[in-house]
Design brief:
Strand content: 15-25%
CATH superfamily of the largest domain: Isopropylmalate Dehydrogenase
Number of domains: 2
Distance between the termini: 37 Å
Order of helices and strands: EHEHEHHEHEEHEHEHEHHHEEHH
CATH topology of the largest domain: Isopropylmalate Dehydrogenase
CATH architecture of the largest domain: 3-Layer(aba) Sandwich
Radius of gyration: 20 Å
Number of strands: 11
Strand order of the largest sheet: 3-2-1-4-11-10-5-6-9-7-8
Helix content: 40-55%
Oligomer: single chain
Shape: globular
Structural class: alpha/beta
Amino acid sequence: MTIVLDAMGSDQRPYPEVQAAVTASNLYTENILLVGDEKTLREKLNLTSGDHSRVKIIHAPEALDMSDHIVEARSKKQNTMRVGMELVKNGEADAFVTAGNTGMAMYFAKKVFGDIEGVIRPCLCGIFPVKDGYAVLLDIGANAECRPEFLFQFAVMGKIYAETMLGVDNPRIGLLSNGEEEGKGNDLVRNTFPLLKNSKLNFIGNVEGKEFFGGHADVVVTDGFTGNVLLKSTEAVAKLIIDLLKEELMSSFRTKMGALLAKPAFGKIKQILDPSEIGAAPLLGIDAPVFVGHGRSDAKALISAIRGAEQSVDNQLLAKLRQAISENIQQE
């Protein structure tokens, strides 16, 4: 399998990407196409330890910045996102991974690959640690403004993702709201509720934040603005908890001894709460495997992203999404 990695996506580009390419190619025996300025990447690659034989550099002279919008992006015709995605489109690679500008990833993915037939709007799918496992939340940032039919399709795609990637049978679908009762929420929530209720999905109704993290639902849908705020707030709270625990546990000899005894448990909690364990979110609805990570991604996060992309191809996620969307259109 061959995975394309945008070498100029993260805030610290290209250092995390080069390290991730080498490590992932050794761990998963995948071929990595590292897309960016060839001279720069060759220098960094030569300074990186490990077997480089499965890493190939693809030259792309231009890079997109986090502040770039469509006007700037269009002027950079040989940017790493477009060049990398074209490799997948042409059959030279199986999936594309970037830690770059989310809006531009969506723009170029739609331009290069297009949407799965029948998809109204693609979305970013996030995986969150919850009680007794993980849950899927979508959208987490691709669509700040949504209509009810968007959220309905997010639920269909989230169901397929939970079944295919998390192994959940008949996933429970929830609608994020400020109250459990039918009729609660804003206009978007109230108008989406009947679409989900009258569908063949395993819809359990509105869920609040406490039910989401309590593991009451396997898939929760919301608009991209709300989902992104929830994502970043969750990451910040998780980091705060870890930092406070570390500070308090190191505050005295007694707490240090207790921390030593509890080290395995704390290590497990830290691993569960670490966003880099997931690495990137799939852009569901695009007619190709596209994964978008956070700009702050380090090598560990990008390695996880590459692993996720590889698993999605192995599990035929794209084919299953196409089938689910097609069946949904026929039912309508």
